Amino acid sequence: MKRRAQTNASRRTPQARRSKQAKVSLPPLWTRKEIRLRVNGVEYTSTVDVRMTLVDFLRHELGLTGTHVGCEHGVCGACTILLDGQAVRSCLLFAVQADGAEITTVEGLGTPERLHPLQEAFRDHHALQCGFCTPGFLMSTLAFLRENPEPSDEQIREVLAGNLCRCTGYQGIIDAVRDAAQRLRSGYGA
Amino acid sequence: MNERPGESRESMVTRYFGEPIKRNEDPRLLTGRGTFVDDIRPPGLLHAAFLRSPFAHARILSIRTEKARALPGVVAVYTHADLPPALQEPLPKLIPHPALIHHKTQYALAPDKVRHVGEPIAVVIAENRYVAEDALELIEVEYDPLPPVVDLEQAIQPDAPLVHEDAGTNVCAHYTQRVGNVEEAFAKAAYVFTERFVIDRGTAAPMECRGVVAQWEPKMRQLTVWDSTQAPIPIRNGLARLFGLPQSSVRVIAPDIGGGFGPKIMMFYPEEVVVPFAAMQLERPVKWIEDRLENFVAMNQEREQIHEASIAVDKEGRILGVKTVFLYDAGAYIPYGLIVPIVASTTLPGPYKIPNYHCEFRAVFTNKTIVSPYRGAGRPHGVFVMERLMDRVARELNLDRAEVRRRNFIQPDEFPYDVGLIYQDNAPLIYDSGNYPACLEKALEMIGYDRWPSERERYRREGRYVGLGLACYVEGSGIGPYEGCRVTVEPSGKVYAATSVGTQGQGHFTSFAQIIADILSVPVEDVTITTGDSGAFSWGTGTFASRAAVVAGNAVALAAQAVREKALRVAATLLEARVEDLELRDGRVFVRGVPGRSLSLGEIAVAANPLRGTIPEEWEQPGLEATRYFAPPRGTFSNGVHAAILEVDIHTGMINILKYVVVHDCGRIINPMILDGQIRGGVAQGIGNAFYEKLVYDENGQLLTRTFMDYLLPTAMEVPEVEIAHVETPSPLNPLGVKGAGEAGTIPVPAVFASAIDDALAEFSVRITEMPLSPNRLLEIIRTARERSKEAKSPR
Lengths: 190, 796
Ligand code: FES
Ligand code: FES
What we know:
Chain A has helices at residues 8-12, 18-21, 54-61, 117-124, 134-147, 153-160, 171-185, and strands at 32-39, 42-49, 80-83, 86-89, 102-104.
């Protein structure tokens, strides 16, 4: 659903004889704007439609397809990235709002050959099945562990409740986060 | 004892089979290097957006697309009238059944009438999705709204509006199966209990919505489609037929799939034919990615059934007969046939001996989204009905719940056990193996059943309402017809295998690799699996009904075994030894007792494919490669028991799961880590089905729960730790001895919840007969029950 200006009502709820209401008009106006930002340490300058979401920009303009889209309405957390160090939902931001920002996406963590300790913990605890939700969980957790290096299980569950996973039942993710906290504290792989 | 693949004489040590091997696919997925459909970006890509019906039931009087076409950035707009004749017909009937009299299927784009909210009417192809959605607003459709039929029981009334006028009825099938004589059994029973059970709609909600990317290369006459489907090869076959192309000109790839759970197999969803059509018309690649709002109305749903069920027992609580008569909501069309209601009817008997059984259903059209299997696919319904009846018997006869079950179990020495019904694969329903009493006893031990009466007392003294719930089930899995696999050892010594099933997170890249690694005696990391690409392997059906590990897994084992034999034959020639004197160890073939003489699998692969010379007859074909198929005679039957302790807050209706245990038997286990993951994830979905997830339609057929704010998926706060134990009764029906496990976690959860809530609220005589519940609904039930029990107590 890209047309944010429209509420879902206009397109999706019953309207008798919609034809009478359909607007005839000029093509909708949109403007473009130049933005500069750093993503995973690389500087980008790009001209974007002002209505383009940040997640679409990252995925489709920069080709960083590790960040996923699960709902486009801010609930599932699949699109979570770090923006100036904060975990944010990139489906709820426009690309132009990230002008001047420093962004980290999942591609900025480890590589398949050299996983980040958090990624390693996810693998060790079978914290992923289809892997679609995983980048969001990783980025949420990364921000969380930076602020809470020694979280309780209750805190872990609370923060993870901000992301949805349909495959795992969360147990492996909780175990992975607990373990990752330990690994990061002991400086392992850092 | 029969020799199993991977356990041949030379290598008695099984290294990977049965071990919790870390997944081969994880490093890729963890680093954002997965390839999901939306990650496919061919150059020149166009984007599609669908105009969908805002009405549940309406006639389309006219569609005008000129303004949409005129919008800059729009490349094309198609409606039903623009489609070629083959795409104007209703889409294929997937699984016909003689009882299915009105087999109505959906259209690629609606012709003159829409039958559910979300049904596609037109498609816009544009330079980007934003513009495509702008253009949807400019399509003018004139509708004549018709009264919708939303409620399942109203749909069968004589004066109900008709979803399909030419059928003359909303009842599209009426089907009965019987074992013995229920009427007689009921007449002579000591007790008969009857109950009405209502199970409502939910949605699978995979985190990745559906998506299709299609690319047509006119010079090569080659159509490539990336599709988030669970069944890429049937989709390839169907597309070839629809577009009049040879199958070899169509390649369908199901890349990484972000969860399937059933509804990602349909053949065809409208988008699966419209997107390739547009790509061929425009000679440019086209992508459509379903957004979540679309997914809630355009991806198939499941679960709505209403059962009137009775059980007849003798004085000891032994079952004499069971009868269920139910309605099955098919939604607006019934492409998938009668699979779900047949699975519900045939799952219901479960682990019990039921001498007389009558199951009868009517499949009914309504103006709601199409229904097709979702994880469980009728099984949760069968289990809910049966287990609720068993609890009822226990309560009414004042017997222990576990004891009633024990008295009725099929015993371990009674296999194979013929239930007397015909299963979804049209084969007789015969349980292959199992040990139901052992599973129950194990679960009772884990949940602390012996201590429970005193625990329960203690909780009550603290003013807490805590209950224990219990449910047993048998899960049909691993049905045919067949799957195949090709295993190749390359000159590098690395092993590549291609199989026909798709994968949606079940870990096939690892479990299949484990099977091969053992048989070929190579490290599991050296085995690369390709799944779900019709260009890599051309024959197969798909991943559904918990069948991939069973059917494809055994094909994988057979192919690897054949490669192993070939390697030994080739090595025998090269090493001038007899096959019997060779052994395969660590990826090398040795001559026994002659340490210096050996060849690596890579060397054998090179030698087996010479550039000059001849190939000895016994090598049969060049290369170190084999393709094998596995076609089981019928399904295998896993089983299990779930038990839970739940606390009900009678003031808020909220539930807290204090303990949840699963005992599960799916035969031999390939990878316990992956298996436990399947079960945990299944339980989480079951919890949603039981308590949080309900699709609410209003009387106009509008879906009111269309976002994750309104339709609640369980989060890490709601899903408890699940304790799992395994009982292993191997299946005699396949060489690996495995059974399916994909749905086991989900199936009994609603029954367990109901059982536990009844127990927690026993003093109010609450009897849960509906699913899903919600805090609000549970509060209502508690309130009504309390008033009832107050009335009963107050003196007249
Ligand atoms: S896609 Fe952004 S929260 Fe779901
Ligand atoms: S692993 Fe599939 S949604 Fe989380």
